Structure formats: C-alpha cells, structure tokens
From TrEMBL:
Statement: the UniProt record of this protein carries the keyword Cell division: no
The protein's name: Carbohydrate ABC transporter substrate-binding protein, CUT1 family
Cited InterPro entries: Bact_solute-bd_prot1, SBP, TAT_signal
Keyword check for Signal: yes
Record PROSITE patterns: TAT
Length: 435
C-alpha cells in the first residue's frame, strides 16, 4: 500500500499479550457475557487511525450518547503506530477498553491469548448481522469462535491518476492489465516523465499486495489452519525479482526513497512523483484530497487480463469486545450501533472502510463521481467475481509482515538477492508461526 503499511507488534507487546492470557485464564477470562447494561453505565472505546477517523468516531459516539443518555462513553485513540504497545499493556493489566478497533494483522494473536470475548452467542441478537455481507460476517471467525465484527467490506485496488498518464503521453489500460503490461506501462511512464518520476511505487515489501499475487497462482500464503506456509519459494523469488527489475529500470523508486514514503501525504501519488498507488479501496478517500485531479479505481494486475481470481472481499479491521469488560452488554450495543445505525453509517462514511452491508453502501454511494461513490461502485462491481476470502491471518503475522518488508528492502539495497530473500522468508516465517 504505498501509503501507510501496518506495523507489526513488537516483541514487548507480544510478551504483554502472553501475560494477559495468563491473567485472563487464571480468573475465568471475563466478567460474564451478561454483565452490565445495554442502556446505561460506562463504556470505554479505543481505536487507531488519523484525524478523519478520530473526528468521525467522536461525532458518531456523541450521537449515540444523545440517544442513550444513561451511557457514559470515554474514548482513547492514537495513530496506528504506538496503538499496539499501549493496548498490550492495558490487556496485560486487565484494563483494555470495553470496545476497541482490531486489525486483522493482530486479530489471531489477541483471540488466541484470550483477550477477546467470543461473540458467537451474540450475533443475530445483541449484534444484528442479517444485513452484513456473508464474507465479512465470516471474517471474524477463528477456530470455533467469532471474536470480532467486521467494520468494512474491502478489497485491494490501484488508484490511478489519468491526467498524469495523459500529460506524458504514456499508454495504460487499467481495465485489463496484467503484471507484464503493468511493468511495461510503469517503465514507459518513468521514461517519458523524466528523472525523479516513477511509474509505480515499490510495493514489493507489502505482503498484503503479495497475497492476491499468490492467490492468482492458485495458492495461499498460509495453510488453512495458520500453522504453516502454503506459499512456494518460487512465488517469493519471482515476486522479489519483479520489483527489483522495476527498481533497476527506474520505473519504481530506489529503496532509500521508498523508506521516506510511509503515509498518504508523503506517497509518490500525493507528491506527484507517480501516477498511481496501491491500497485498500476505501483509501481513495484519503488520497483524493491530496491530488489536483480525479482518481480512478482499478483492480490489481493479474496473470490473465481481467481476472479477479486473486482478489477477495473481507473485513480488514474489526470491532471487538474485551473479555474482561465489566459492561459487555453496553459494549455489544455500541458495536451494533456502529455497524448498523444509518446515522452512524453516514457519519463514519468510508473512514473505517466501505460499509459491510449493501444498505450502507447504497446510503453512501449516491454520488458516483465522488471518491466514496467510486469506492462503493468498485466493491459492487467485483463482489460476485472475486475469490473466496482467505482464513484470518495467523498468529505471528505481524512479525512475518515486518520480515517480508525487510527482505524486499535488503534486495533493493543490494544486501541480498531474490533467491536468498525467498529462502530466508521460508525459514524465518516458519519460525514466527511456531513461536
């Protein structure tokens, strides 16, 4: 995602989670599924994100309090980086927020360690799920439990700036591009645009973009149980080599520049140094204010023109309830509000992703030329053509994500080569899964 790429849990945070699990098990794990009240009492809510997320969440929660004056809501929020160390410390001290935002990157770690309430008995009653997309509802399942409710229904996308391509006379067909034609287009743009301009950001270190690439080959990165690797060494080697070729040809930036483009504002798309960016579809709403002309949304390149076999729709982030919450009924009622209430859906917009229900998408997608309308139209267009979503990312995913990025960087800096990086990933990723 050449904008923000999620950061892994630090080892200190993981140790905190381990301590939390021990504490939860020693005390029976929770305050009881029926603890508290749905219409009164205190509810703490935590989330990560940027200023647009914070503003929308606070407005939505103020509206909830206006409907339920007996509920006192306190909030805590931060950027994605820094959120996880604090949350792990709170969880270890049995003091996590009642409701909090959970990334798929760490979902399995928290569920496995007993930090999350199993919502299986609450779905369909305390939390209404009848209108949610089936794949999103299933995304919250781990083993025999359901530990989160998806905030969104999203897929991978490429955000392309047609005016930038036209300005340099470069040709591109985003509707049916393959990985081969994508590379040709990126090289053509860089050659025409001149020094310091690139046809694509370097997403070779982004395992979340690598995932659909592997699925296009009929495989997954992980085994269904999350205990092993299903990806093959040649998949990794060819991926790392593909992006090294783009860097060598100056179609993608050198690793030193990529290291400086860690958020939306500093991305190559926002700074005018590339005509495109990769990401999750709702991120068009973050990029759009940063560029001077309209963006279009396209699917990822694929081996066969127009194929969507590698892509999928799923929730990337969840609302979860702490297993140690003293007001679980209040927490459940708030989650139901955030995903189902028309007023909340309108207020939140696409700040948390494309709504996980058609009713929500219809509500927000009335202007097809707006960034929101384009994102929603894209989801509606591909939803019946994409593949089945993969299982939840496994425990240890955060470390594996960091490893993947480092290996691509090592290749870019000449410290390694694609073959060595692929072999190193296979060895060290297995260790993370078994750690």
């Amino acid at each position: 995602m050449s904008g923000p790429i999620t950061s892994p849990l630090t080892r200190r945070a993981l140790l905190g989670l381990t301590a939390a699990a021990a504490g939860a098990l020693a005390t029976g794990c929770s305050g009881g599924k029926n603890s508290g009240s749905a219409t009164e009492g205190a509810v703490r809510v935590g989330w990560y994100g940027g200023d647009p997320v914070h503003a929308a969440m606070k407005k939505a929660l103020d509206a909830y309090h206006g409907k339920h004056s007996g509920v006192t809501i306190s909030t805590e929020f931060s950027p994605f980086d820094g959120y996880w160390d604090k949350l792990a410390t709170q969880t270890a001290g049995r003091n996590a927020p009642d409701v909090y935002r959970m990334s798929m990157s760490y979902f399995a770690d928290y569920a496995d360690r007993g930090a999350l309430l199993d919502l299986s008995d609450q779905l369909g009653s305390a939390i209404k799920t009848a209108d949610l997309d089936a794949d999103v509802a299933a995304s919250g399942k781990i083993d025999d439990g359901t530990y989160g409710v998806g905030q969104s229904s999203i897929s991978h996308a490429v955000f392309s700036r047609p005016a930038a391509w036209q300005k340099v006379g470069a040709e591109v067909s985003t509707a049916d591009w393959t990985w081969e034609s994508f590379a040709e287009a990126a090289k053509g743009y860089a050659g025409e645009a001149g020094k310091g301009m690139y046809g694509t950001p370097d997403v070779g270190g982004n395992i979340q973009i690598f995932e659909p690439y592997v699925r296009q080959r009929g495989r997954e990165i992980f085994t269904p149980d999350g205990a092993g690797l299903a990806v093959q060494t040649e998949d990794l080697e060819e991926w790392f080599a593909y992006w090294q070729d783009l860097r060598s040809s100056k179609a993608a930036p050198p690793s030193s520049i990529t290291a400086e483009t860690g958020d939306f504002a500093t991305s190559l798309l926002a700074t005018g140094k590339s005509p495109l960016s990769f990401g999750w579809v709702q991120q068009i709403t973050f990029y759009a204010p940063l560029v001077d002309d309209p963006l279009e949304v396209a699917a990822l390149p694929s081996p066969e023109a127009g194929s969507l076999s590698g892509q999928f729709l799923k929730a990337l982030d969840f609302w979860v309830v702490s297993s140690t919450s003293k007001n679980q009924q209040g927490a459940l009622a708030l989650v139901d509000y955030l995903i189902n209430d028309p007023g909340a859906i309108k207020t939140l917009g696409l700040t948390l992703g494309v709504p996980p229900s058609k009713a929500g998408r219809d509500q927000l997608g009335s202007d097809p030329d707006s960034p929101e309308g384009k994102a929603i139209a894209y989801v509606e267009k591909i939803k019946d053509k994409v593949g089945k979503p993969p299982a939840a990312w496994p425990k240890g995913y955060g470390e594996i994500q960091e490893l993947f990025g480092k290996l691509n960087e090592d290749v870019g800096f000449g410290k390694s080569d694609p073959a060595k990086a692929a072999a190193q990933f296979m060895t060290e990723a297995k260790q993370s899964l078994n750690g």
